[in-house]
Task: inverse folding
């Protein structure tokens, strides 16, 4: 029995839409990451980007368990001396809920050239409206 490897030209990309309202952040992000990488397909090949596009709506309605809203802190450095900035999950959810989901999914994707291609197939929107109606995304249940 031989293993069949898929080439880039043989892959087909589909569009999925996932509703984040009421979903737990980590579980939701891991399921989205699997779809972006193509691990949900029987033709998964680690060195080929054969994943699908994912449109996430209602990003502001994502939920977390425990005391993560106050205890989880996101750090970034401006590049200047003393430029370490910190913001809690609650603050970030109020300002930029799209980035919360993006960071969670990005943490589950390989940090390679292929991973950077995969993360570009993720589209996240705050409300229920999105500009990808022409692609006819299939609703997917991630619970």
Result:
């Amino acid at each position: 029995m031989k293993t069949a490897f898929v080439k880039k030209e043989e892959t087909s990309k589909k569009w999925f839409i996932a509703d984040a309202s009421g979903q737990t952040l980590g579980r939701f992000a891991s399921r989205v990451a699997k779809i972006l990488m193509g691990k949900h397909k029987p033709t998964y090949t680690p060195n080929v980007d054969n994943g699908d596009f994912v449109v996430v709506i209602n990003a502001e309605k994502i939920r977390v368990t425990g005391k993560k809203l106050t205890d989880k802190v996101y750090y970034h450095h401006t590049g200047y001396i003393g430029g370490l900035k910190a913001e809690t999950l609650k603050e970030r959810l109020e300002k930029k809920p799209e980035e919360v989901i993006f960071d969670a999914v990005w943490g589950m994707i390989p940090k390679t050239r292929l991973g950077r291609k995969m993360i570009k197939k993720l589209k996240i929107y705050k409300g229920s409206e999105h500009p990808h109606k022409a692609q006819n995304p299939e609703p997917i249940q991630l619970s």
About this structure: Residues 2 and 142 are 33 Å apart (CA to CA). Residues 13-64+97-139 form a domain with the Ribosomal Protein L13p; Chain: A; fold (CATH 3.90.1180.10).
